[in-house]
Amino acid sequence: GENVEQHPSTLSVQEGDSAVIKCTYSDSASNYFPWYKQELGKGPQLIIDIRSNVGEKKDQRIAVTLNKTAKHFSLHITETQPEDSAVYFCAAINEKLTFGTGTRLTIIP
Amino acid sequence: EAGVVQSPRYKIIEKKQPVAFWCNPISGHNTLYWYLQNLGQGPELLIRYENEEAVDDSQLPKDRFSAERLKGVDSTLKIQPAELGDSAVYLCASSLGLSGPRNEQFFGPGTRLTVL
Question: Residue B111, SS3?
Fold first, then answer.
């Protein structure tokens, strides 16, 4: 089955700086890579996704990149704000949605 | 539009007791998922329903866990008997359509289970 590794497990950045979270996957058949944000006491919420026929996708301050050859994909958040503080999960989909282990992002005011 | 509703939000039971969780998906969503989320980990799929049919229950520990979605809408997940290691958050999600997990999944707030 699919195995998704995510780094770092915790990340603290100054407000206004950028944050980068990286993931690798193992199953070359995976072709859809969503990113979820989970706030305390809530379920994960989709924030952006990328399909395997695209190398990069951007939505305002959030961007994702995908390197299919290396089986790497990354989340980039620019101009971070306090409300970006949360746990972020990458995921990969082949037959089912497989999540990474999560990154706790803290934005320091 | 109401999101995915789960109840109860919190449940504390003693080991060996039974427990049940309820989920009401977003109206019109054909596919329903139950996930298990251990502390500090990502959610792991337990079971996926398409309408009332369980199409993927390969990760459901069938000796103590059971689930049903009788009319293709609400769903119940049951554990009997509960063990200490079952303490976790149980998440329900739903998605529109029947093309598998690639459709956007909308998650409920989860039920936090503590087994003493």
Answer: strand
